[in-house]
Amino acid sequence: MSENNGKGSEGSGIRMFGGGSKPAGGFDPNKLPERKKTSDDKKSTTGKKTDDRKNGTDRKSSFSRSNASGAAKRIEAKSGGAKAKTGSPAKAGVKPKSDSAAQSSVRTKPNSKPAAKPGTSASAKPAASVSQQRPSTSQKVSGTSPSASTANRAKPTSASERIAAKAAKSGTQPTAPASKGQRVGSGAGRPRQSASAAKGVEQPRRRKVELTAREVALNVLTSVDEKAAYSNLLLNRSLQQAELSPADAGLVTELVYGTIARQATLDYFLNLFIKSEVKRLNPWVRSLARMSLYQIRYLDRIPAHAAVNEAVEIAKKRGHQGIASMINGVLRSVLREGDALVIPDDLPTAERIALQHSHPQWLVERWMTQYGEETAEEVCVANNQPPKVSIRVNTLRANRDELMRELENEGRTVRASELSPSGIIVESGGNMANDHLYRDGRFSIQDESSMLVAEALAAEPGMNVLDCCAAPGGKTAHIAEKMGNQGRIVANDLHEHKQGLIMEQAERLGLSCIESSVGDAMALKDQFEPASFDRVLLDAPCSGFGVIRRKPDLRWAKTPDDTASIARLQRQMLSAVAGLVKPGGILVYSTCTIEREENQRAVAEFLRDHAEFVAEPFEIPALESLPQAGGAGVQILPNQFGSDGFYIARLRRRG
Questions:
Q1: Quick one: 389-445 is in which CATH superfamily?
Q2: What is the pLDDT of residues 157-167, one digit of tens each?
């Protein structure tokens, strides 16, 4: 998702270009030109050097050139090249240094490193010659002018030398900023190596690109739309990377979840103004249009003109003027229509509900068949409401009334859950995971409906309990608390990396009776002895239609075929773990969906095929006055308590 927007650093007179960039000056410092030397070049260079020695015009330069030639020979000998011979350096395969290089070697500290590393051939081509790729560090940092002999050379042979020659003529010095952590002047007299020739040399770091809240939200929405990424996981990761303020992080969350939840409604209105229809747009353009329209129609705190202007600026930045004009025209057309943009009332019922409350029409039709038209629409309305914050008290360390008083003393607004005897609803107060009481293990964050699973299991101290699909461990911990941390709970999950989540929960809450296990629930019958557990919990994988308000993209990700295949897997899992229950023991089957095929029908078929089990009711006072959908177990709908949709069935094995 992330894009690499890093830019190369700039020095005074030299631009450092990243990979793939082309400089405007007509050359590329990252690719040095290769120039084959002619015999005439060698003769003229050698001749010039001989004349200098005879005339004695520059003893200092002559001494330096002699040392440079000797160093080159020693380098060649160490690197395993041809044995150094007396006579002309050209015959030994070593290119003589220029006057500027000779003078630079005089300025080099006595303990400075040679220009080439051991193991590097001294007879390499000019493009690989370290001493000629860039001006020396002393020239770059201190601003020392190149020697006159360098300026008088007939023709530079490398890109860096051409830069130096050009700078000498204009009176400016080619300098580059020191890399982060490098002291100015620390490399004086030491030739710099190219990135390809010097491994391990720290390169200039690219500046972190800061994204606005809307840009972060747009990236998440595009990945969800284009790559079918999980919105909750991607959102959490993106917020951690962006390091936004709490207010901006809240805006990103609202834009992501709200835009996904209202997608069908937004597309309906956008299609009135986009000739090619929304589905034909580029994914990021489609996401930008949806996100912007969501702000205009559903967020009162954001002025409409601000939403339009921000969308246009993002379109310019990420695309081009044509896209920006299209986005501007569509959104301003929406503003002109105002309240006239409504879903028609004369549509067929399922289509109207699907468009007005943004759900797949096939799903609305299923719920109308299962629960009736009125309840189906109420469920759709509830799915678009923000989820409540509910917590579960750790009864080993406090009771509910005590914890509520502590939270109120912190300035939070709380009330007791009417659905779960261990639950507390937090109506204001911020992120509960940041509370010191949470870190101290006084409570866990869990939905009210989910808390009822441990109540149905009714595990007692000293019992042997198996949780077949335990991660992330909320229900496992609740069971341990109800057992008084006495007995044994095996917390199994298919994924090994999720075991850490379970044990982290146990450690935070002070629970020592939980042990982890990794494996497929279908194979647990081969891992444990038959009839070896007093209680078995199968919180089965499901379609998740009961938690749509928390994971809004689920409604668009599933198909009718998915629910059928999931239901088959659930029946197989029920049969596989049933034999692990002791006679007289209890098997609890639970899901976070409201699909009858995965719930009542799955349990009915299990009871038909396993006569040794019988459905056993359990008391939930809050549900006594509410009609049930029939069949074994309890079905909680999202519209009843503002909690997650959940199904729980308690099945006792005959003694």
A1: Sun protein; domain 3 (3.30.70.1170)
A2: 444 455 455 54
